[in-house]
Specification:
0% strand, 245 residues, globular, 62% helix
C-alpha cells in the first residue's frame, strides 16, 4: 500500500511502521506479579504450620513451602516470556524470595532443627546480594548464572528435607552443606560482577557538549521506567531461578 505523506501519523493504518514499533508498558496487575504476591501471602501460613510441630502440620508446611517455591520458579520466566516485567516486580520478587527462605531458615533454627550459623551465613549472603542488586540496577542488569540457579534448587531441596518429619539426617545435612557452599561461591561471584558493572558504567560518563549543541539525553538503563526490561539481559526481578543470582 502506497503511503500518503499528507495523512497524519495518528490516522495511518495500524499496520504502519509507527504502530508496529510502539510498545505499551506492562500492566501492574498481571500473572507474574500475582504469583509473587501469592508467595508472600503463603509465608505466614507456612510458618504457622511449621511451628505447630505435629507430623501432619509438618507435612502441610512442606506442601505450602513447595507451592511457594514453584511460584518462585514461574514468575520470572512468565514475566520475561510475556513481556510483563514491571518495576513493582523487580522490588517485590526478591523481597518475597528472601521472606520465604528467611522465614524457613529462622523457624527451623528456632525449633532446634538447623544450626544458627547456617541460617546466618545464608541470610547474610542473600541480603547482601539484594543490596548489591539495587546498588547497580540503574547501571544495568547482571545476567543469571548457572550457579545461582543451582544454589536456589539446592536451598529449596535442603530446606524441604529439614521440614519433612522423616529421619534422613545424613541426606539433609549433605544437601544443606552443598547449598551453603554454592551459596558462598555464587555470592562472591555476584560481588565481582556487580563491581565490574559499576566500574564499567563509571568509565563511560556523559559527553560534555558545552562548546556545541545540547547533550543528548541518555537512554534509560535496565531498571529505569516501566517496561524497560524488554530486550534486557535475561534476568528476572529477583535475578534467581530463571534469573538466579
Amino acid at each position: 500500500m502506497r503511503k500518503n505523506a499528507d495523512v497524519p501519523g495518528s490516522l495511518r493504518p495500524l499496520t504502519s511502521p509507527d504502530a508496529r514499533t510502539s510498545t505499551a508498558a506492562p500492566r501492574l496487575v498481571n500473572l507474574p506479579n500475582g504469583l509473587t504476591m501469592l508467595r508472600l501471602a503463603l509465608v505466614p501460613v507456612f510458618v504457622v504450620f511449621l511451628v505447630a510441630g505435629e507430623t501432619g502440620s509438618r507435612i502441610v508446611a512442606f506442601l505450602v513451602f513447595g507451592i511457594a517455591s514453584v511460584t518462585d520458579l514461574l514468575d520470572g520466566q512468565l514475566a520475561r516470556r510475556r513481556g510483563m516485567i514491571t518495576d513493582f516486580g523487580k522490588i517485590a520478587d526478591p523481597i518475597a524470595d528472601k521472606a520465604l527462605t528467611g522465614s524457613a531458615l529462622i523457624t527451623l533454627s528456632a525449633l532446634g532443627d538447623l544450626p544458627w550459623w547456617v541460617t546466618g551465613v545464608i541470610l547474610v549472603r542473600e541480603v547482601g546480594v539484594t543490596v548489591l542488586r539495587f546498588w547497580v540496577i540503574r547501571h544495568g542488569v547482571i545476567a543469571a548464572s548457572r550457579g545461582g540457579k543451582i544454589k536456589t534448587v539446592l536451598q529449596i531441596v535442603a530446606i524441604g528435607l529439614y521440614i519433612l518429619p522423616v529421619d534422613v539426617t545424613w541426606l539433609r545435612s549433605a544437601a544443606m552443606a552443598a547449598a551453603v557452599a554454592v551459596t558462598l561461591v555464587t555470592g562472591a561471584d555476584y560481588v565481582v560482577r556487580a563491581l565490574r558493572l559499576r566500574r564499567a558504567a563509571g568509565s563511560h560518563p556523559a559527553k560534555d557538549t558545552r562548546g556545541g549543541g545540547p547533550a543528548a539525553a541518555p537512554g534509560p538503563a535496565p531498571g529505569d521506567g516501566p517496561g524497560d526490561s524488554q530486550g534486557a539481559a535475561p534476568v528476572t526481578p529477583s535475578g534467581e531461578m530463571g534469573g538466579a543470582q
